[in-house]
Design a protein that fits this description.
11 helices, 2 strands, two-stranded antiparallel ribbon
């Protein structure tokens, strides 16, 4: 009797979560892409944070000052708190002839580039399921570099405030804390850019749906 009164599930109700996500479109698809984009971005942030602490081991020896056309990136007079022993040591290491060295700038810049190339590759394959041509990456790379130059400048503005904070424990975390505001800016710019430059490939989309169907069948 219970079987007779049991309501039949509609095809939509029988779909697994994977199948429902694979069939999204419009604004729901964009929101789901944003969720995956931010998840991959989190992994990229971990990579960037690690590299920002590893790269100085190799680049601190570069004591050549930045060229004049990059002077806008940093305010040398406020970049380090020379009233402290650590700040004075950093200023002596990273400022030569009144200008920041490549050894200070490159760890921030290259860590950001490396992390975002990783994110682009992962998003192309898993978030947007795209087979966009290589020249799309070239255009994206230009957008990425310009954005990173901007956030590098922003890091130079914010770094002095962090290392001058009254809490000693926060000073070693300055490079990591800087990822938060810069990450927000990059998330907005890079998501829009990738959404436009990585159009979905119908074959890859169908392949994703087929995999979702196969997983659903295996569970039945």
């Amino acid at each position: 009797m219970a079987d007779e009164t049991k309501l039949e599930q509609t095809p939509e109700e029988k779909l697994t979560m994977g199948q429902k996500l694979a069939g999204l479109s419009g604004i729901l698809l964009t929101l789901w892409q944003l969720v995956k984009f931010m998840g991959i971005g989190g992994a990229g942030g971990v990579i960037q944070g690690i590299l920002q602490y590893v790269f100085p081991v190799f680049f601190d020896r570069l004591t050549t000052p930045l060229p004049n056309w990059l002077d806008f990136l940093y305010q040398e007079e406020t970049l380090f708190d020379t009233a402290t022993t650590a700040g004075a040591a950093d200023a002596a290491k990273y400022i030569v002839d009144g200008t920041v060295t490549w050894g200070y700038m490159l760890p921030f810049f290259l860590a950001n580039i490396a992390a975002n190339i990783f994110c682009y590759i992962m998003n192309k394959k898993y978030t947007f399921k795209s087979s966009a041509p290589r020249w799309h990456f070239v255009l994206y790379f230009v957008i990425m570099v310009l954005t990173i130059v901007f956030v590098t400048w922003l890091q130079g503005i914010l770094y002095p405030y962090i290392i001058r904070a009254p809490w000693e424990w926060i000073h070693p975390l300055a490079r990591l804390i800087l990822l938060i505001p810069c990450g927000i800016i990059q998330t907005i710019v890079f998501f829009i850019a990738q959404k436009l430059l990585l159009p979905p490939d119908p074959e890859l989309v169908e392949e994703g749906k087929a995999k979702a169907d196969a997983r659903a069948a295996a569970k039945e």
